[in-house]
From TrEMBL:
Residues 322-465 form the Aminoacyl-tRNA synthetase class I anticodon-binding domain. GO terms for cellular component: cytosol. PROSITE patterns: AA_TRNA_LIGASE_I (PS00178). This is Glutamate--tRNA ligase. The gene is gltX_2. The lineage of its organism: Bacteria, Pseudomonadati, Pseudomonadota, Alphaproteobacteria, Rhodobacterales. Keywords: Aminoacyl-tRNA synthetase, ATP-binding, Cytoplasm, Ligase, Nucleotide-binding, Protein biosynthesis. Pfam families: Anticodon_2 (PF19269), tRNA-synt_1c (PF00749). It comes from the Bacteria. It comes from Actibacterium lipolyticum.
Length: 467
């Protein structure tokens, strides 16, 4: 790997589904790496054994796969690297950048209580920091970082600018617990270093962590990654995104019928911008994405904007790819699979179905004319268009269609001439035709439906409706 190669990572904790905020973090890392010919790595931070589950890991992988964010190599398990993390902590002991602390939990709690009561800082200062090894008792201990107490730690952040922490405000954090297991803070730094991560792009709730993690880099003499801490996503009301705002997991967006490309496009625009561009594809996003377009304020989630982009992406999508994603949507929503005949019908109808459609659910509703079968029983709305007068008109119209050439122009001309001869507006004819051909009111144009289902099926459905 050349030194100049960009390496980013996404490092979720497997304690639940892939949160929409996590999905955006993954997307930003993916775009940054892919746009620069770099690597995008995946690490599962499964050190919290009580809360980490294989099901949650599977849900995260599934969510990323649906979203189309491919990662390089295998996903790394942080838990499996515990031996390496401990090795680094022991190395820091040897070099004097860490020390053994024998203070018990009770002693630390008592110190904090006293400090609080006296109105003093509760930042714990271990008496073991400079204790001579011969004074060490034969008792359990934790390994703490010997953090600098003078001066300041400055995070040169690509989004937040320079953020300064006074070193006397940072404690000697624990690196290894008394049972020898590494802490999250140590594990993150060791993994990022070993994986060659050059850019750490994550939520700004990790900003304080960066100041402490930088001290481990310094102690080990490792070069720092470039930091970019991005603002969190808020709901439409300006409060932190939560369950009350609606869907939170990526899989819920698939089940709502949004194509993955639309969700990628929308998430990219959530907190990042490229001029006034709202609608764009992956190639443009990879080319354009950079830290300069990321705002410092939290972005607000807006379902209407997502829906609008979804409609645009469905409208321009490749028909075969759309059919494939539609089938995945059916699996995700536990709906029956399509028959071969239904797939053929959808393939023919797709150019007429995708215009003005904002979700796969809407698309399926519009496609009922190729998904259903005769006799088409009109639903409540459609049956209002099929009164006795309308049935009579359809009876008269049928022979005109039987004799027409089966092209759009010829069909439009035949229906138009028939309507004009009877002093009818075309709209007056379209509704009963819709009801007869699809049994629904939300459909593609009646002429598009006729072309897709063919002459024989059209005449048969009109004859059914007249009965």
């Amino acid at each position: 790997m050349s030194e100049a190669q960009v390496v980013t990572r996404f490092a979720p904790s497997p304690t639940g589904y892939l949160h929409i905020g996590g999905a955006r973090t993954a997307l930003f890392n993916w775009l940054y790496a892919r746009g620069r010919g770099g690597k995008f790595l995946l690490r599962i931070e499964d050190t919290d054994r009580a809360r980490s589950t294989p099901e949650a890991t599977a849900a995260i992988l599934k969510g990323l796969t649906w979203l189309g964010l491919d990662w390089d190599g295998d996903a790394v398990s942080q838990f499996e690297r515990a031996g390496r993390h401990a090795q680094v902590a022991l190395e820091m002991l040897t070099t004097g950048h860490a020390y053994k602390c024998f203070a018990t939990q009770d002693e630390i709690a008592a110190f904090r209580e006293e400090a609080k009561a006296a109105g003093k800082s509760t930042l714990y200062r271990s008496p073991w920091r400079d204790a001579a090894p011969e004074s060490h008792p034969d008792a359990p201990y934790v390994v703490r970082l010997k953090a600098p107490r003078e001066g300041a730690t400055v995070i040169k952040d690509q989004v937040q600018g320079d953020v300064t922490w006074k070193n006397d405000q940072l404690d000697d954090m624990v690196l290894l617990r008394s049972d020898g297991t590494p802490t999250y803070m140590l594990a993150v730094v060791v993994d990022d270093h070993d994986m060659g991560v050059t850019h750490v792009i994550r939520g700004d709730d990790h900003l304080a962590n960066a100041a402490r993690q930088m001290q481990i880099y310094a102690a080990m003499g490792w070069s720092l990654p470039v930091y970019a801490h991005i603002p969190l996503i808020h709901g439409p009301d300006g409060k932190k995104l939560s369950k009350r705002h609606g869907a939170l997991g990526v899989e819920e967006y698939q089940a709502m019928g949004y194509p993955a490309a639309a969700v990628r496009n929308y998430l990219a625009r959530l907190g990042w911008s490229h001029g006034d561009d709202e609608f764009f594809n992956d190639e443009q996003a990879k080319e354009w994405f950079g830290f300069d377009g990321i705002g410092k304020s939290p972005a607000r989630f807006d379902f209407k904007k997502l829906e609008n982009l979804s409609g645009q992406h469905i409208g321009v999508a490749d028909d075969a790819a759309l059919l494939q994603e539609l089938e995945a949507f059916l699996v995700a929503t536990d709906a029956p699979a399509l028959t071969d005949a239904q797939k053929s019908g959808l393939a023919l109808a797709m150019p007429y179905l995708k215009t003005g459609t904002k979700s796969f659910g809407q698309l399926l509703d519009k496609a009922y004319f190729v998904l259903g079968s005769r006799p088409f029983e009109p639903d409540e709305k459609a049956s209002k268009s099929l009164d006795n007068v309308s049935r009579g008109i359809l009876t008269e119209l049928t022979p005109h269609l039987q004799n027409a050439s089966w092209t759009r122009d010829a069909l439009e001309a035949a229906v138009g001439e028939f309507a004009e001869a009877r002093g009818l507006k075309l709209g007056k004819l379209a509704q009963p035709l819709r009801a007869a051909l699809a049994g629904r009111t939300a459909t593609p144009s009646v002429f598009d439906m006729m072309l897709v289902i063919g002459r024989d099926e059209t005449i048969a459905r009109l004859t059914d409706a007249q009965a």
